[in-house]
Design a protein that fits this description.
32% strand; 201 residues; three-stranded antiparallel beta sheet; tt1808, chain A; 3 helices; alpha+beta
């Protein structure tokens, strides 16, 4: 798979002109582009988004009170990042703006690790989320089936909890209901299965 492209920016218009199907982020004056995720990565973040939106956005068996978006551009100062998942309490973001990006800092973000994104998610993006005061940062690794829940404390992220597949969990800030982490990858073939359709991501 091709490596992400890194292009020096002349302006924000380069970000807005990125073709459909390409994930684009403006970080420290550099445009980072990469294909939209597929396979295990895509299934993990779409499943997690669906699991959370029901009870926390629509109030289906849960408290509601949130807006949760997948791969939506968010403005962090002069930078434009695209978290895999991001969430806002409705008192801070009552409605989703029609603009191409949101300027209100999320109350929660989640990044799904992949071989090409792990370094950026754990270093560059973590530092931006910390600097701009995102209270909760989840890092989900679908390869090891581990969820790390980071909480902002005195300007630094501290590990609030770690969860592995196969157990029912209540990770903050979505601890009002019980979640089954194993649902995120139950539709993906096991690692030791043959690959009749070619190599996965």
């Amino acid at each position: 798979m091709a490596s992400p492209a890194h292009i020096a920016l002349a302006g924000l218009q380069d970000l807005l002109n990125t073709p459909e199907g390409v994930k684009a982020e403006l970080i420290d004056g550099v445009l980072h582009t990469e294909p939209r995720p597929a396979g295990l990565h895509a299934e993990s973040f779409s499943s997690l988004g669906g699991i959370l939106k029901g009870p926390f956005q629509f109030g289906m068996g849960g408290p509601g009170g949130w807006i949760i978006l997948q791969e939506h551009t968010v403005k962090f100062g002069d930078d434009y990042l695209v978290p895999d998942l991001s969430g806002w309490k409705r008192e801070r973001l009552p409605l989703i703006p029609r603009a191409p990006f949101i300027e209100i800092i999320p109350d929660w973000v989640c990044e799904i690790l992949s071989p090409r994104s792990a370094g950026k998610d754990r270093i560059e993006k973590l530092n931006h989320y910390k600097r701009h005061g995102v209270p909760w940062y989840w890092i989900l690794d679908p390869m090891t089936q581990v969820l790390e829940v980071l909480r902002l404390h005195d300007g630094q992220y501290v590990l609030d909890s770690t969860h592995t597949s196969g157990s029912k969990i209540r990770p903050k800030p979505f601890d009002a209901i019980e979640l089954d982490l194993g649902l995120l990858w139950e539709s993906v073939e096991p690692e030791d299965n043959p690959e009749p359709h070619g190599p996965r991501e």
